[in-house]
Amino acid sequence: MFGEGIVSKSVSSHSDLIPGVYEGGLKIWECTFDLMDYFSEAEIEFTNKTVLDLGCGAGLLGIAALQGKAARVHFQDYNSTVIDEITLPNVVANCTSEGRRMGSGKDRKASKPPSKRPRKAEGSSDVLNRCRFFSGEWSQVSQLLLNSNKPCLKYDIILTSETIYNPDYYSALHDTLAQLLDRNGRVYLASKVHYFGVGGGVYLFEKFIEERNRGSFSSEA
Ligand SMILES: C[S@@+](CC[C@H](N)C(=O)[O-])C[C@H]1O[C@@H](n2cnc3c(N)ncnc32)[C@H](O)[C@@H]1O
Known about the structure:
By secondary structure, this protein is an alpha/beta fold.
């Protein structure tokens, strides 16, 4: 458990990011909540879509897609500890009937019934059959995803929040998006305008994408 030692490394370095060691997936970053609000406001449809939560951390975006009846949701994080200890348990807790029961207190000695009727949830094997979990660096993971998605399956929707903080990763991130996104697919990316101390941000990433593609990607603010 916690074989990568990222919890102690993060605590001892007083940092949420240790480049190449721990990339921040143990906490939920603010833009995830902004993107989830956007899903509701813009009524983004996940039904029957194939979705990738790239740099998923706790996996809230992928969980929203699962709850929105996506056909498949794949989760990727740099750190295996995050996938094993945070993402996967979070999917089980939020999307399966077993997890919902535990969350609603039915298995405890709670007296009050939940105020809202819980949404219909699936058994864990049904939900987990729609999910896959990957860890590792983007350039390696994209090859793994391409090779393991047989027949070669690209994503209708790629969700990614707070993943453009480090310009050193832009090339790998760009190539991953380009290789994995379906021709008619969409990337929903949430980010801070600028990441002080690391250097990345929306404008720098937009510029990078434009230079690499010269018009083949379209972006909306
Ligand atoms: C700041 S965290 C954001 C986590 C989550 N999306 C959120 O908003 O709460 C950045 C995430 O991007 C992923 N990531 C960053 N750089 C990466 C790289 N070079 N290769 C693979 N994953 C990377 C990490 O897995 C990490 O969880």
